Amino acid sequence: MSRLRVLSLIDIPWNSGLAAYAFDQAAALRSGGHEVSFACHPQSAAAAFAAREGFAALPLSDRRSPVGPAEVLRLRRLVSAGGFDVLAPQTGRAQTLAWLASFLPGRRYACVRTKSDARPPARGITFSRTAAVIAASEHIRAQYLAKGFPAGLVATVRQGIAAPPPAPAPGRPPYRVGVLGRLDPVKGHAWFLESAAELLKSGTKAEFLIAGGEANVTYAALREAALALGLGGSVSFLGKVENALEFMAGCDVGVVPSLGSEAVSRAALEWLAAGRPLVAAAVGSLPEYAGAPFLVPPGDRAALAAKLRELLSSPERLAAAGRENRARAERDFSQRAFAEATLAVFERAAARAKRTP
Question: Helix 92-101 and helix 69-82: axis angle, to 10°?
Fold first, then answer.
């Protein structure tokens, strides 16, 4: 395949899971010999990433701006001036821009839409000129198929990760059970604390660690809930941590107790790469990361407590589950596997566009 020139359209200003996926996608395409540029707001996280990693960054309004003729014309001019073969919109608004620009005279390009956020997909007219859709999880792909999209249009490409050096196996009780994620009701921190209290009442020795930035829940509220449950000094609240994998290496077990959402779970992937057992709610994409024996119904505190008690009862079981997770991360979620799958989708889409009259 000859070198492609790809323009990644990302109109959100902040860093997020969606942005992180777009950044990894750009790196994967570059590793395959293709040239990638970003169309983004000059003050966005995408612009900062582009400057840091050596990608070109072209101006694009952010998502608060309406999609008007001037913006569509500006994008069409960028495509013609840059000689782009593929446009890669990362949001619905960006896809609309790419679709509208395709009707204007100029260079023909393929459109590859990436879906890596929790908002449910919608079926609209903009897909009439979309060559391929990348779903960041099988859960997202299933949502597209349920909307009636052709199976051949949507490909699952799960994000990859570089596994860190192996961390020491779990030590002796009390084992450390960790949760990493933003503080939001949907992330299930209250459920986790209730399960922790039930676990301790059963006689299991454990410590609990919660890390992540505040969103719609505060640490003050979680501390109050922990005290009411009688957890006392058994819970540590660490706030936002700079290095997720370092936090995970300091835990013996990871939990993702989400009550919903989780279209993509970076935290679950990181628990696997860290070589730690993962217990998770059976929601969203989490069953794609945690094995069936380690899934529990969302919100069921007795089930979560029982699963943790079963796991913590045996150091050998803990160590074996951690080794298996790390092996899965290296085998199924490697950066190489992510790059190969990404390249295949983009190259097929570009080739198809060239054949289309």
Answer: 70
